[in-house]
């Protein structure tokens, strides 16, 4: 079913300029107008439309099914906004950009091309439009990063008093002049945003810790931390009916609590406690309203937080297709009882169904890593008395029967689909060594650690290297180049030095693997010292390290070239400072294996 004045949507494997993801929940009254607007846009732009239904009960599903060229994703539960977006991102297919939309929006005829035009710049990570309310008045949708002073200001003055107050006293940007010209912002309401596909792929999934509210705050923060900007384009206009997700006292309390949860994920206990007090103050000053009175109690009593709306997720079985026996996954593990199950569970069904061999090599473990691993269906466990990663890799090779092979650190999170994508790439013959694309999870990390990894992400050579992602794969032919893993500290860097650029590949996957970073400077320096020692070993073996791992001129030049402004300059300085500090051996330093304990928490 298509409108007579509109175009058809792109379907199947065809390329789309824009893949629009609309999260719907009881949206039957709103969706027809939005679909018509997108069809009009599809006359001049190749649009793929994906509607993600969060278990609606008002006929939304039947309405979408009436459009044969609209892809419907039924979640089987109410996953919330972030969960719904993630379900849509998994099926966007071949596209240049991803457009996230609320279901209760209307688009002007030129909204889409204007968003696309604004996104056509290297450092733009997302573009947000100007939003009009039902009366055609510009809605104050632009936001500043939440801080304690801004939350106190909003608590005292709200949205009606002293709207011209300084920016450090208001999270919302009320200035009319801010909505008349293109500029960069901290974040904006998540009703509508366009994300270049390469950015969406790098950022990975939205944070489902937030069922509703603050998920966009978190996502925009990650975009900014990647060194990119969030751009406001006032000439791109959408109309928002508001309230498409519904309103209730429960949702009002959830909005307040999620403001606290967001700060808790990015700041320490003392700061978060002060913010929690500011949020409670804002509700208390408006306690004449019953909803605000109830919200105060919920914010102050953490025991009530679990009663707030949350995702209702069905039991999902990830179905893989294609041939069986695609390769092996070898996981060396030393005292990884806290994280090994988190790593194994996404791969378990693929092992049970025969797609992969899943082998855990416990080496010198003093905890119950082996016992925990054996509880995961499909996992085979090998135990070594000696604590040695190279020995564990070689023992895994002896146990495995399939090629190619993915060598995976025990604390890396990766999907079965990503594993198979790497193994399939290696099976094609031209590529001898490959790894999945990856992203850093810096939640809970200190400001200096986050700054270091922002700078590291910007180094082009690092993005193409086989080391540093906690996972790499080898074909049988590639493995023959060195036979057995030598006794070196950095096996991934060693492998990287054995192959030419045209023999390597970073495989694009729907969900990048997740590398959890250290949370404090001490832990970061520990693993950097280990890396420096690994560089020294490889020099002794006659293998010259890559420039990014060399503390000399090559690294400095690459980091300086990544600078695009004052913030990236600060990140670059932190990166170089950490690199230099890691070359100094601390007093009373042990000669053992340094690893990051700060990020190893149970799943």
From TrEMBL:
Coiled coil spans: none
GO molecular function: glycosyltransferase activity
Keyword Ribonucleoprotein (UniProt): no
Pathway it works in: Cell wall biogenesis; cell wall polysaccharide biosynthesis
Keywords: Cell wall biogenesis/degradation, Glycosyltransferase, Transferase
Gene3D superfamilies registered for this protein in UniProt: Spore Coat Polysaccharide Biosynthesis Protein SpsA, Chain A (3.90.550.10)
Annotated Glycosyltransferase 2-like domain residues: 21-146, 329-451
GO terms, biological process: cell wall organization
Organism superkingdom: Bacteria
PANTHER family reported for this sequence: GALACTOFURANOSYLTRANSFERASE GLFT2 (PTHR43179:SF12), RHAMNOSYLTRANSFERASE WBBL (PTHR43179)
Family: Belongs to the glycosyltransferase 2 family.
UniProt-recorded name of the protein: Glycosyltransferase family 2 protein
Taxonomic lineage: Bacteria, Bacillati, Actinomycetota, Actinomycetes, Mycobacteriales
């Amino acid at each position: 079913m298509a409108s007579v004045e509109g175009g058809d949507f792109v379907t199947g494997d065809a390329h789309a300029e824009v893949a629009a993801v609309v999260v719907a929940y009881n949206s039957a009254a709103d969706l027809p107008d939005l679909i018509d607007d997108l069809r009009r846009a599809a006359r001049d732009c190749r649009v793929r439309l994906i509607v993600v239904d969060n278990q609606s009960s008002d006929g939304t599903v039947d309405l979408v099914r009436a459009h044969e060229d609209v892809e419907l994703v039924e979640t089987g539960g109410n996953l919330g906004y972030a969960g719904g977006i993630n379900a849509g991102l998994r099926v966007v297919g071949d596209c240049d950009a991803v457009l996230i939309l609320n279901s209760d929006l209307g688009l002007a005829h030129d909204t889409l091309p204007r968003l696309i035009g604004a996104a056509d710049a290297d450092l733009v990570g997302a573009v947000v439009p100007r939003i009009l309310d039902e009366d055609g008045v510009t809605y104050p949708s632009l936001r500043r990063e939440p801080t304690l002073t801004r939350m106190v200001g909003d608590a005292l003055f709200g949205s009606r008093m002293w709207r011209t107050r300084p920016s450090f006293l208001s999270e919302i940007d009320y200035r009319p002049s801010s909505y008349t010209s293109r500029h960069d912002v901290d974040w904006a309401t998540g009703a509508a945003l366009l994300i270049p596909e390469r950015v969406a792929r790098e950022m990975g999934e939205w944070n489902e810790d937030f069922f509703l509210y603050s998920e966009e705050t978190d996502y925009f923060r990650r975009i900014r931390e990647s060194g990119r900007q969030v751009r406001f384009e006032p000439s791109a206009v959408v109309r928002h009916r508001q309230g498409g997700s519904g309103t209730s006292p429960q949702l009002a309390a959830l909005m307040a609590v999620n403001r606290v949860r967001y700060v808790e994920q990015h700041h320490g206990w003392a700061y978060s406690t002060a913010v929690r007090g500011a949020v409670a103050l804002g509700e208390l000053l408006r306690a004449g309203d019953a909803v605000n009175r109830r919200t105060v109690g919920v914010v102050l009593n953490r025991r009530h937080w679990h009663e707030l709306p949350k995702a209702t997720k069905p039991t999902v079985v990830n179905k893989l297709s294609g041939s069986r026996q695609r390769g092996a996954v070898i996981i060396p593990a030393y005292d990884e009882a806290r994280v090994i199950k988190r790593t194994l569970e996404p791969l378990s069904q693929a092992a049970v169904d025969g797609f992969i061999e899943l082998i855990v090599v416990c080496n010198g473990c003093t905890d119950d890593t082996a016992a925990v691993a054996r509880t995961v269906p499909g996992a085979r466990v090998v135990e070594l008395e000696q604590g040695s990663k190279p020995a564990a890799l070689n023992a895994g090779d002896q146990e495995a029967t399939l090629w190619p092979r993915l060598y995976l650190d025990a604390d890396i999170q990766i999907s079965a689909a990503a594993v198979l994508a790497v193994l399939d790439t290696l099976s094609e013959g031209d590529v001898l060594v490959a790894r999945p694309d990856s992203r850093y999870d810096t939640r809970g990390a200190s400001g200096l650690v986050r700054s270091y990894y922002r700078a590291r992400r910007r180094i082009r050579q690092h993005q193409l290297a086989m080391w540093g992602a906690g996972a790499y794969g080898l074909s049988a032919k590639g493995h023959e180049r060195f036979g057995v893993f030598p006794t070196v500290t950095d096996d991934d860097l060693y492998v990287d030095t054995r192959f030419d650029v045209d023999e390597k590949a970073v495989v694009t996957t729907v969900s990048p693997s997740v590398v959890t970073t250290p949370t404090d400077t001490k832990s970061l320096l520990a693993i950097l010292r280990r890396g420096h020692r690994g560089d020294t070993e490889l020099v002794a073996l006659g293998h010259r390290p890559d420039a990014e791992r060399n503390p000399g001129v090559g690294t400095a030049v690459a980091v300086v070239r990544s600078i695009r402004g004052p913030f990236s300059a600060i990140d670059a300085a932190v990166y170089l400072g950490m690199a230099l500090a890691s070359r100094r051996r601390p007093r009373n330093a042990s000669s053992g294996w340094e690893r990051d304990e700060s990020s190893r928490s149970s799943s």
